[in-house]
Amino acid sequence: MSELQINTTQNVKISFTAAGVGERLVAFFIDTAIKIGYLILLNQIFGAFEDMDRWSQIAINTVLSFPVMFYTLTLESFLEGQTIGKRALKIKVVKIDGFQASLSDYVVRWFFRIVDVFLFGLGFFVILFNKKQQRIGDMAAGTGVISLREKVNINHTILEQLNTNYKPTYPNVIKLSDNDARIIKDTFVRAKAGKDYPTLIKLRNKLIEVVGIKDVKQKNDIEFIDVILKDYNYYTQDML
After folding, report:
1. Phi/psi of residue 55, nearest 5 degrees
2. pLDDT, mean of residues 81-97
3. How far apart (Å, rounded) are the C-alpha atoms in residues 156 and 210?
4. Which residues contact 134 (CB under 8 A, 6 or more apart)?
5. CB 85 within 8 A of CB 78
6. pLDDT digits (tens, 9 = 90+) for 11-61
7. Phi then psi for 101, rounded to 5 degrees?
8. Beta-strand (E) ranges in the chain?
9. Is the pLDDT of residue 87 over 90?
10. DSSP codes of every residue in 99-141
11. Are 38 and 67 in contact (CB under 8 A)?
């Protein structure tokens, strides 16, 4: 397994395990099987329209084929970088710069499937010889595919130890996503350990802006960021 390093906006490197070619192929085959199953069902339905004129059949066929054409793009957009196949294999698409991939990134990846998948499986060979395990679409979109199977403990996740009587301070932390919280915690832990105070200040200011905090109740940056992480865990613990 190759290591994929993601650079956050605070210039902190976070290491993930890049999804291997085998995992990506299995995920691809699962998604392909789903598409084929849908097309078989579609073919059965079209048996009832054999008496229709040719152009009407083509029009209906085109419309009903959209789910296959946009399967990957739609699911990756709504499932934050995963299709059914990727979710089954516990892999997902992420941005190399640490941001959550956007719709435009997924569109670029989807568009380059024409080259990666349908041009003699070129993407497969590109992944084999690319140190970040990227296909052409990933390189164009600035994305990578990571494995979520890593063994981690509570210190390496977004979870924070909470007392049973813990009372949250900032309810607006629910604006953050799990990916945001993970990047915040990784940045916070590294900056605190390295006494990187400029990064802590930047992280604090960014959180105040993104979360929309008008009244900071903690005395210093470390206490403030620690409370943000604990509050996020408090409000999302039932969803984790």
Report:
1. -70, -35
2. 90
3. 23
4. 126, 127, 143, 144, 145
5. no
6. 545 667 788 889 999 999 999 999 999 888 877 776 655 666 677 767 777
7. -60, 140
8. 3-7, 13-17, 91-95, 143-147
9. yes
10. SPPPHHHHHHHHHTHHHHTTTTTHHHHHHHT-TT---HHHHHH
11. yes
